[in-house]
Amino acid sequence: MSTAFALFETAIGGCAIAWTGSGVLALQLPEADDNRTRARVLRRWPDAREEPPPPAVRHAIDGVVALLSGAAVDLSTVLLDMQHVPMFERQVYEVARTIPPGQTLTYGEVAARLGDPGAAREIGRALARNPFAVIVPCHRVVAAGGRTGGFSATGGVTTKLRLLEIERARLTSEPTLFDHDEAFARLQRHR
Description:
Elements: E1 4-10, E2 13-20, E3 23-28, H1 34-44, E4 49-50, H2 55-68, H3 87-96, E5 105-106, H4 107-113, H5 120-128, E6 141-142, H6 156-166, H7 182-189
Helix pairs in contact: 4-5
């Protein structure tokens, strides 16, 4: 099956998306510039062709662009090509796809949802290999106690925190000083 890809602009920089006839194969977050983003895709799929995306992929791109601009977009219906993704990782990615924008789960909570509460480290390793960044929102999975945990995309934890900030996510369930301030809530809704 042939692989194609396209570059596209977002609020955080130039991303790339790769696909096959079975669905989205990968989403590449920005590298230092478009040439490096393109090179990263071509290192993984040397025979991939750069071409205009078909309608389903265009829909995925539009969703990613909106999400990275701060809209609460649900990308869980984007069709993914997971033919080469191991079953455990598929299961982890499906749980991650249920986390709405602006919310988080801990690695332990994802493990518990999979029925294996002792698998937090394995969850972290699976998410580190996530080829569908943002579409499979691995940035929404954090460590216990409000810690961020790792992030394998360019920029590491700084990129993870930026994505969470764009989504207005909180890393802890602790109330803030402004939780019951209606004026502050209105301001946040208009951001």
